[in-house]
Amino acid sequence: MSKLSRNKQFFFSLLVPVIILIAMTVKPLLTVLTGETIYLQTTPVDPSDLAYGDYVDLEFEIENVPLDLLDNGLKKQLGNDKDYFNFDSDKTVYITLKQNNRTNIYEAIKVTEIKPRSGVFIKGKLASYINQEGDNNRSTKVAHINIPIERYYVEDNTGTHLEKLTQRGKLKAEIKVRDGYAVIRGITVID
Question: What is the pTM of this model?
Answer without folding.
Answer: 0.74
